[in-house]
Each structure stands twice: as C-alpha cells, then as structure tokens.
UniProtKB/TrEMBL annotation:
<feature type="active site" description="Proton donor/acceptor">
    <location>
        <position position="84"/>
    </location>
</feature>
<dbReference type="InterPro" id="IPR029033">
    <property type="entry name" value="His_PPase_superfam"/>
</dbReference>
<feature type="binding site">
    <location>
        <begin position="9"/>
        <end position="16"/>
    </location>
    <ligand>
        <name>substrate</name>
    </ligand>
</feature>
<keyword id="KW-0324">Glycolysis</keyword>
<dbReference type="GO" id="GO:0005737">
    <property type="term" value="C:cytoplasm"/>
</dbReference>
<dbReference type="Pfam" id="PF00300">
    <property type="entry name" value="His_Phos_1"/>
</dbReference>
<keyword id="KW-0413">Isomerase</keyword>
<dbReference type="InterPro" id="IPR050275">
    <property type="entry name" value="PGM_Phosphatase"/>
</dbReference>
<feature type="active site" description="Tele-phosphohistidine intermediate">
    <location>
        <position position="10"/>
    </location>
</feature>
<dbReference type="GO" id="GO:0016791">
    <property type="term" value="F:phosphatase activity"/>
</dbReference>
<dbReference type="InterPro" id="IPR013078">
    <property type="entry name" value="His_Pase_superF_clade-1"/>
</dbReference>
<dbReference type="InterPro" id="IPR001345">
    <property type="entry name" value="PG/BPGM_mutase_AS"/>
</dbReference>
<feature type="binding site">
    <location>
        <position position="59"/>
    </location>
    <ligand>
        <name>substrate</name>
    </ligand>
</feature>
<protein>
    <submittedName>
        <fullName>Histidine phosphatase family protein</fullName>
    </submittedName>
</protein>
Amino acid sequence: MTLRLHLVRHGQTTLNAEERVQGWDDSALTAAGLAGVRETAEALREVAFVAAYVSPLGRTMATADEILSHHPLVKPVLDDRLKELHFGSYESRPTLSLLEVGDFATIGAGITAGTFEGFGGGEHSRDFVARITQAFDDIVAAHPEGEVLVVSHGGTIQTLIARVAAYSGPPLANASVTVLERTADGWTLSA
C-alpha cells in the first residue's frame, strides 16, 4: 500500500510579487501566478486523485480550482489547519522586515522545531506545527493509500517535509509540486 501526497504550493500572488509577507493575509494570483498554476494543473492532469485537501484562503482555493478542473469527481475539502503561519504585525510588510526578528535560517529552524515564539501578535510555531501535524495525520488516516492532492502554502509544506522527510533545501517555488510518498519503509520525498 502506497500513499502519495501531492503537495502543491499556491501560485504567485500580488503580495508574493511585491516581496511582502503573506501568512493569513491574502491576495489574488497574478497573471504569471495563474499561468504557473495552469502548467501545474496540466502536469497533474493524469494523476488519479482520490481526495483533495485545501487551505481555505483565496490563493489556495484558486490554485486548487485550476488543478481540479481536470478532476471533476474530486471535491475539495477545505481545512483551516492547512493555512500558513500567522505572522501577526508583520503580515503584508516587506519580507526583509522579518530580519528585525532574526536571520531567515534561524527563524526557519525555530519554526520547524516548534520553538520560535512567533512574530508580534502572531502564531507561536509550536501551535503552527501542532495544527499542521494534526491535519496531515488526519489526511493520512483517511487515505492509507492512493494519490491525494494537498494545496497549501510554502511555509506549511516546507515545515511538514522538513519534519517528516528531513528536507533542508531552498524555499519552495510558487505552483511547485512536492510528492511525499509513504510506504512500509516510511516517508520519501521527490520534487
């Protein structure tokens, strides 16, 4: 029995293009973002998805809609637990403003470990890790095998794959697909 989670990061948004922090704040897909999502949708056209789970933010729902247009029998399940980290007072600010808190590598390691206190008024990483872990545990319990689509956010996906498959690579690109496969031997990763 093999389970494959096709983890898709949403397409490029206006805030992404402006290099602004985007956690729970939302913005529309850009024209380039939509084009990238359509390429991803085409690449996933032949995958026989048994289920689809989607963060309820507009950018992820728009991404999922494009992908699922090729899979009309698969209805998306919206799950708040798949949302990005809440960045508090840093939401929509320039991404470089995060350096006021620390360097990106240290912040990222703290988020993955669940030890980062969070950004002013935002979510503690322990809570973030707990909610995404529970979401993915529930998805795995519901689908012990098959192809499952998960449309979420860069930080959410990256935190998951760092924790279960020791991913330590660069940030995930918009509209990228990362496949996390579970077999009797555990989890393996391909991008």
